[in-house]
Every structure is written in C-alpha cells, then in structure tokens.
Here is the input.
Amino acid sequence: MNPVEVRKSILRNVLEANNNPEKDETKLSKAAGNGYVRLTNIMDDNISMSDTLHCKASHKTLCGEKCHGSIMSIPKPKTRTLKEIKDEATTFFELYCNSEKLNKNERQKRIDEVMHSISTTGTYDLTYDELVFGAKTAWRNASRCIGRIQWSTLQVFDCRKVSTAKGMYEAACQHVKFATNGGNIRSAITVFPQQSKTGCGARVWNSQFFKYAGYEKPDGTIIGDPLSVEFTKFCQSLGWESKGGRFDILPWVLSGEDEEPQLFEIPEDLILEVNIKHSSEN
Here is the structure.
C-alpha cells in the first residue's frame, strides 16, 4: 500500500469511528463521553494515539490549507469583531481552566478580566502561565509538524516587553544558546510583542536563523546559496561587508517597534556547523 492509500485508509477509519462508534469499539476510548478517538500508528499498527481535536474544529486556519508560518509576508487576517474575539478568548480560557483545574470562582474572575479588557481595548494580555499553555497547545495541535511529540518539553521565553532590535538580538542569542545546547537540541520558543494596530512590531527579517549567503556573479553564476541571493543583497544594502565565499553565514536582520531593520553579526560560538565532503573527494 502506497503512502497516499495509507493516509486514505487512516482517514476512513477515523471517520467511520466517529460516525459509527458501535462498528469498531477499539477506535474509541472507554470514556466515550469524552469523545476520544483512537488512531492507528501506521508504523506498527498499534492503536494507541488519542485525539479529539478534529471533532472541535470550527473554522479554517489563517493560512488556509497550507501553512505559511515561515513566510515573511504572512496573509493578514480579516478584522475580527469584538464578539469574535470574545468567543475565541472564551474557548481558549475554557481549555486553559480545565487543564489547570481552576475552581469556578478563579475561572470566572479571569474570564471577567479578559472580557473587560477586550471591551475597553480590543485585546488582552496573557499571563506567563497562559502563554506557556497556549504555546504548548498550539504546537501539540500542529498536525503537520513531525516534531510535535516534544510539545510538553517546550521552553517558552517571554520577551513581550522587548521593544528594540538590540533587545531582540540578545533574546535571539539566548534562544539559540539554549536550543542548540552544544548539539543536544532542546525545544524552545521566544515570544516577542504582538503587532500594534498600525501593523508595526518586532520582526525577524531572516527566513531562518542560520543560512549561507548567495552571490550572483556578472556572468549569472552563483556562489553560495542561490536561495539567499536577494536577501544577501538586502544585507549588503544595510552595510554588511561579506567575504564573498561559499559558506558565509548571513547576519541577523532585526527590527523592533517602529524601528528600521538593523544588522547583527552572529557570535561565532553560536554557529554550529558540520564539516562534510562529497564521497568522490579524497
């Protein structure tokens, strides 16, 4: 059975379990009232993975059918009404309060605070614990991410008070040092301030933290990474003095709230590279 047929088979099993639970009780949790569906692990055919999220999906994601998270010009969402914001906030806090087992009074007090903030400012701020819960839950629910099995170990760095490019640079260094961990990778996310109503905010201009530069020669040939040619030109326009080699690490280009993009060279001790060579070379 090819991969496409495997995926179709799994989907049929899930849908059948949802629509006709009496047909295959092994697809359902014993706690049927919770709506858990058992999914088959295609590696060993064991039915051990539980899921309820597909039953709760209410609308498409911002990106649509494909994830655009790594693209700089992410499509902007439509302007939401206060009712939509409140409805989504209520859903989030129901998940959070149930997860943290908050009592009725604590739950209502926090929801009232959030609703008041939305009514007066159009938005609200998460506490650190709520931010951690939201980040971990978002990763856990990212169905296209093959690494999400590590969601519970995610380290969240709260940098929402950072407003300058220099502060972002320091936070990025901290993030990389923690995450790379000398080669023993650890999962981490750094959260900068959300965009303001004017659309300005913290921005990382690089498509990824570590990437080689690309240089186009007069004859059209390219030295380095062809995908980095345009961004390399952008860095040079900001004053970056490159070496013109095949493996030049691009600098970080960062901009804080209402700031122009600024260049920051990456400390050498944060750059982990592997020396490789083609098998044809002696």
